[in-house]
Amino acid sequence: MRQAPVVIFVVNEIAASFDKILTMDERVSEICNAQSIGAAIENMTLTATELGLGSLWICDTFFAQKELSEWLNGELYAALAVGYAEEKTCARPRKKPENTIEWRL
Ligand SMILES: Cc1cc2nc3c(=O)[nH]c(=O)nc-3n(C[C@H](O)[C@H](O)[C@H](O)COP(=O)(O)O)c2cc1C
Q1: How far is the CA of 58 from the centre of ligand 1 (A)?
Q2: Which protein residue has the closest C-alpha to ligand 1 atom 25?
Q3: Residue 23 CA to ligand 1 centre (angstroms)
Q4: DSSP state for residue 20 in the 8-state scheme
Q5: How many domains does the chain have?
Q6: Helix (H, G, I), strand (E, B), or coil: what is residue 61?
Q7: Domain-embedded: residue 1
Q8: Residue 87 sits in which domain range?
Q9: Inside any domain, residue 13
């Protein structure tokens, strides 16, 4: 995060507060919002790549979660560091699908 020229903080302004006990509807809404935010971040990383930029999706923001969320006025969900990458990465070999998917018929 220190090295990147740009860090985008992704914030959920309507997140339920940590100390609130959620109803089932509220819980589903939180789960839904988290998935939407994840999809949005994925789109941001794909667009960065398309533009020739490097990016790093960062979720281990717990070291300053409270301070950052207060500063940003919402619940910090992720930080996305963006910049010109110093090195070119190649795609890692993927696990064979038969080891990762279990088909239940
Ligand atoms: C939800 C999520 C959270 C991540 N959080 C971190 C993080 O906190 N720190 C980090 O160095 N990388 C983080 N990453 C990046 C991953 O470690 C990994 O580099 C990235 O998903 C690319 O995977 P690949 O190299 O297998 O394609 C995160 C990725 C995702 C999808």
Answers
A1: 7
A2: 92
A3: 31
A4: P
A5: 1
A6: coil
A7: no
A8: 6-100
A9: yes
Q: Which residue has the tokens 């930080």?
A: 79
> Residue 64: which CATH number?
3.40.109.10
**Cβ density class 3-39: b for 16+ within 10 Å, e for less:** ebeeeebbbbeebbeeeeeeeeeeeeebeebeeebee
Mutate-to-test residue for ligand 1 from 41, 59, 63, 90, highest number of ligand atoms within 8 A of CB: 59
Single-letter code of the amino acid located at 52: G
Per-run averaged pLDDT (10 residues), the chain, 105 residues: 94 92 96 98 97 96 94 96 91 79 82
Give CA–CA dist 93/54, Å, rounded.
Answer: 19
Residue 35, in any domain of the structure: yes
Q: How far is ligand 1, taken at its centre, from the CA of residue 77, in Å?
A: 14
Looking at residue 42, what is its pLDDT? Answer: 98
Q: Note whether residue 105 is domain-resident.
A: no
